[in-house]
C-alpha cells in the first residue's frame, strides 16, 4: 500500500447511478459502469485506481440496473465496497454524494465518476492527487485534463488555472484549457446545507470557488473521455498504443 499523508482521504464514492443515456443503445441492457473498454469494465478501472491509492472503503451509488451492478461488485475483494441505494430516486451527482455522506464519514473524501478513464504518466494520477491535497489551502482539489491531449472530449473546456493551481470557470470565454477529469477530493463541509433531492456536484465546486479554495492538479498521461459508444474503440486504440 502506498505511503500517504496522515491527512490523505481514506474513503471515496464512485458515482455509478446515472442512466448513461449518451451511451445508448449499450445502456439499454446494462449500467454504464459495466461497459468494457479493452476487456475491463469502467467501474473496475475506478476501483482498482482507488485501491492502488490506498483508499480502504469505497461507497458506490446504484440506480440504473442496480441489481446487475451490485452482483458485479460482489465479485471483488478489494477495496471494501459499501452500497448507497438510489433505486427509489435518481439524485444526480451532488444529491448522490449528499445521500452517501453518512457512509463517507466526517473527513475529506474522493469523488470518482465511474466513466473516468486515463492512461497514466510516470506516476499514478490518483496517488499524485492524494499527495497534493492540502486542506489548509483547499476545499476541493480536482484532477483536470488538458484539452490539447485528451481523447473523446468535444466540449470547450471547464476551467482556467492560475499559476498557484487555483481554478476558475470558463465563464463567458469561448474556451478554457482544462476539463474536469471526473475525480476530486472534497471536504464534507461543502455538502452541508445543500438542497434535498437531485442536484449537481457543481454546487460544491461553486462554494469552493466563492472562497477561492478550488484547486486543480493537471493529469499526466492522457485522459480518455468515454461518453458515447464510438469513443470506446478510440480509447481502446490509445490504450493498446500505450502498451507497445
TrEMBL record:
Transmembrane segments: none
CDD domains tied to this protein: NTP_transferase_like_1
Boundaries of every Nucleotidyl transferase domain copy: 12-129
Entry annotated with the keyword Transmembrane: no
One Pfam family linked to the record: NTP_transferase
Signal peptide positions on this chain: none
InterPro entries for the chain: GlmU-like, NTP_transferase_dom, Nucleotide-diphossugar_trans
Alphabetical UniProt keywords: Nucleotidyltransferase, Transferase
Protein name: Nucleotidyltransferase family protein
Originating species: Microvirga splendida
